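> tool_call: predict_assembly(chains=two)
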Amino acid sequence: MIASKTSQLDDSQRIVITGVGLAAPNGDDLGQYRAALLEGRSGVVPYEIRYFGKTVAGVCNFDPLRYQKRKELRRGTRAGSIGIYAASEAVKDSGWDLPNLDRSTIGVYIGVTEHGNVETESEIYLISGYNYDTSVWSHHHNPRTVANNPAGEIALTLEITGPHYTLGAACAAGNVGLIQAAQMLRLGECDLALAGGVSESIHTFGIFAGFASQGALATHEDPTKASRPFDANRTGIVVAEGGCVYTVERLADAKARGAKIYGELVGYAINTDATDFVLPNPERQAQCVQKALLRAGLNPEDIDIVSTHATGTSNGDALECEALRNVFRESSRTHFNNTKSFIGHCMGAAGALELAGNLPAFRDGVVHHSINVDQLDPECALPNLVLDGPREIGRVRRILNNSFGMLGINSVVIIEDVGQQGH
Amino acid sequence: MAPEEIREVIIEILGDIAPDEDLGTLDDAIAFREQLELDSMDFLDIVMELRKRYRVQIPEDEYVQLASMNSTVSYLTPKMATIAK
């Protein structure tokens, strides 16, 4: 079932990240975002949404007009706009000469937790003002709510004519976008890929109300303290918007054009709990991590940083820690951190964004910390959980990124520093 | 609503639909599409806004009447004569 170990693959089958574009609640590009993570700066702010009322959320501040006209913004979706911004930034960062590339060979693979709720809620709200007369229901509803919308808006704006689609993978979707890109590049279905995840979820009241009804929505008088994975007094999830898109290509191609290489995707895995709609299964999570290690031909002690998925729910955080403890029991080298403590849960973008914030560790050897752990929950007390500030750990060779979602979907990617190979 | 008021309504709607355009230089005698970046979805927006704001119904086979400002105002004047702005 497992494909060849990455180390045995030819350069034409090895997959690397060559550009990063992102919109995070605490940064509009990788430099700002990494600086915020190292400085302990949160992106969670007071927020209010129709019907639900006052709450907190991770809200982005990027300028959407950098890559879109006002008319395009009006016609499209927030998820599409975040995707366009992140994809355009990634292309700029990668050095791709987009106008002169054969754009029929570029694939766009974008992970989403959900899509269409924002528009549907807005339209129902609008027609409620017309006694539910559906003749005023917007003709923009269908193109905005089709499931391929965010990837489609990216392709439309960047005039990319290769395959595009979104991957609905709940909160595992950011990793899944990247994995899909790797698979399609290896199959020769595309020669370059834009891949990652986006979230517009703060614009649907339903996600806040749903988590609140489930007893899983974070509350705190100080918004910046609301997202607190691993803390004994954590109260749940902070919903966030955001996006992260990578340019992804084969190592041979990246080397040939002298590209900057952020890292190589050396291992990945996706599996399913098949035990519950919502409650995670630590045994399956551990199996997913082990499967990714096996594919990469690595042992737990080969991993320097584990970017955890933990969302701040009482059960979820403890169960993930149980899974990680089982896999990394013998590894004194592995350090653990969490990005949601800064930005909240960016849903379909979470996996991609959380990986991105850790990638600079290949260059600076620093593990960013997790904030808001005032009193560590003993069930979450992983060895080398980085809490009180960024930690220098020397050379970082590999980062393992967890991303899990409802209906028991688990995804793991392992990124390795390729050193100077691409330069 | 008088013809000049209907024109103001259409300008207001166009301002929402085509926010990047300069409507101050619009020539009322020339087709919108020759002056503005409008597609079929934008014309549907005009129809939809008139329906929402003033309950004016425009049958599909009469959309062609919305080609220019002059034709739009002429077409809408009898339909909107008794509607207050």
